[in-house]
């Protein structure tokens, strides 16, 4: 597969949004240069040269190969994880990041949009905004159940691996990690309780999905659980008094 | 771009509401594609939405929604084999995939990425201003900065990213409602703010916005799908949706 242009990827390992793009780049067997951006200590050139919104992930595409801090004016600058996932699907057609069939493409896109609603809301409420949320445990479990309900009987979100899996798996992997280790803004023990609830029959299909996800090559290449535990267990937001 | 399997003629049923700007997006896209689905109007007023819609068509209970394919069936009993789809942007992408000749997707992947990024960035600018003004009853001082930020996203001339694209389909309904309903003082904003808004948008700093509105208003698919009379009629429910 001839890669059409250079790709520079601005990212950080903790970010589930960056993880989406990292997975897709691996799925596409793309050649890319990674540049780690710490948003707590953002380099002064990042906003002006790469992404005026100052967020990650972002990519530059095309133009000559460049040092990360000096993107070529010829290079396209693309940000927003779902926009990048769609772009990679367009420039790497053989990688089938989205299925060829319009019906399946639509199903994959709907899974992503549905997750961005209730799924992400539960993730955010339970782990990050527990005290301010109305019923964070219920929202989290309902979001996970809604995603599970859209899955086919076996395989990935729409059968073969697609952008739908790349978009949602980063959140599921982090959710499992945090729950198992009782990490979050919730009181002690609440994480472990939800983790136990996820071991029951209601979530059998989701557990199988997560098992299949962890075996998938682009996940193996981009998810280091020990490293992630090290980062998340140090998260100052999760410090309990 | 991937080569997509050409679909045989399959049934398309579009569940819609005449007042919904989200449904309006899909009507514009269908008009651009010259597709005429079966239309089924869903009454969104509290207590009026039929249970079969949530049970059989869209578990999220929202319009716009499609069924596609499967044996022809009554709208309240769609074939189990039919694709059930929702979320206006997912539906527009689906129409674009089924009808590449409709020019909803720019052929150049970078331009298409720019269109999708524009759509994403329009949520926190134009869309937020729209909801603020019409639904949260805010004054113009509260929404004009968002409209200015939206204006800054526009290409220097032409449509949102230059040539017509799905980006225009997504934002046209909100812009048309701003420009066509404010004059009637329809919305939750205080009486008189409609006139104030139109006056503010007439100032030189909003020249690009007004130019863009005019080009949208001149687009046949936008005009053909905007039925001003029922929307502008006063109704106890304040039908804006």
From TrEMBL, chain A:
It holds the Pfam family GST_N_2. GO terms for cellular component: cytoplasm. It comes from the Eukaryota. Residues 5-96 form the GST N-terminal domain. InterPro entries: Glutathione-S-Trfase_C_sf, Glutathione_S-Trfase, Glutathione_S-Trfase_N, GST_Omega/HSP26, Thioredoxin-like_sf. This is Pyrimidodiazepine synthase. It comes from Trametes pubescens (White-rot fungus).
UniProtKB/TrEMBL annotation, chain B:
It holds the Pfam family GST_N_2. GO terms for cellular component: cytoplasm. Residues 10-103 form the GST N-terminal domain. It comes from the Eukaryota. PROSITE patterns: GST_NTER. This is GST N-terminal domain-containing protein. It comes from Trametes pubescens.
């Amino acid at each position: 597969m001839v890669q059409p242009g250079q790709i520079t990827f601005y990212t950080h390992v903790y970010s589930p949004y960056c993880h989406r793009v990292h997975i897709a780049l691996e799925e596409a067997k793309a050649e890319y240069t990674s540049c780690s951006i710490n948003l707590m200590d953002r380099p002064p050139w990042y906003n002006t040269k790469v992404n005026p919104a100052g967020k990650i992930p972002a990519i530059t595409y095309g133009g000559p190969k460049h040092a990360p801090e000096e993107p070529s004016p010829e290079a396209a600058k693309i940000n927003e994880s779902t926009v990048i996932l769609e772009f990679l699907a367009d420039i790497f057609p053989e990688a089938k990041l989205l299925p060829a069939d319009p019906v399946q493409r639509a199903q994959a896109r709907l899974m992503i949009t549905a997750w961005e609603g209730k799924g992400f809301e539960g993730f955010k409420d339970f782990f990050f905004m527990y005290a301010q949320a109305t019923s964070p445990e219920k929202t989290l479990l309902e979001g996970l159940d809604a995603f599970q309900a859209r899955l086919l009987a076996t395989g990935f979100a729409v059968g073969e691996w697609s952008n739908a899996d790349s978009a949602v798996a980063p959140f599921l992997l982090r959710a499992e990690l945090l729950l198992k280790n009782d990490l979050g803004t919730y009181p002690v023990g609440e994480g472990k309780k939800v983790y136990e609830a996820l071991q029951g029959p209601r979530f059998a299909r989701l557990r199988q999905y997560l098992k299949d996800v962890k075996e998938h090559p682009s996940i193996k290449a981009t998810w280091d659980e020990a490293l992630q535990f090290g980062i998340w267990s140090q998260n100052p937001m999760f410090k309990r008094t | 771009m991937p080569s997509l399997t050409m679909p045989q003629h399959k049934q398309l049923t579009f569940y819609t509401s005449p007042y919904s700007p989200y449904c309006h997006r899909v009507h514009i896209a269908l008009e651009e594609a010259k597709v005429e689905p079966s239309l089924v109007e869903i009454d969104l007023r509290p207590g009026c939405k039929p249970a079969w819609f949530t049970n059989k068509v869209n578990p999220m209970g929202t319009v716009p929604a499609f069924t596609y394919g499967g044996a022809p069936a009554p709208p309240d009993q769609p074939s189990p084999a039919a694709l059930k789809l929702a979320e206006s942007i997912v539906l527009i992408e689906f129409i674009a995939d089924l009808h590449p000749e409709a020019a909803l997707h720019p052929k150049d992947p970078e331009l298409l990425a720019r269109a999708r990024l524009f759509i994403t960035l329009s949520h926190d600018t134009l869309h937020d201003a729209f909801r603020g003004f019409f639904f949260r009853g805010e004054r113009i001082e509260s929404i004009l900065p968002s409209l200015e930020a939206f204006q800054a996203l526009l290409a220097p001339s032409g449509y949102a990213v230059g040539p017509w694209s799905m980006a225009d389909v997504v934002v046209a309904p909100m812009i048309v409602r701003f420009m066509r309903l404010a004059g009637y003082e329809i919305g939750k904003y205080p009486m008189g703010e409609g006139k104030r808004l139109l006056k503010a948008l007439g100032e030189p700093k909003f020249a690009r916005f007004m130019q863009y509105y005019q080009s949208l208003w001149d687009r046949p698919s936008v005009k053909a799908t905007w039925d001003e009379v029922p929307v502008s009629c006063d109704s106890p429910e304040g039908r804006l949706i």
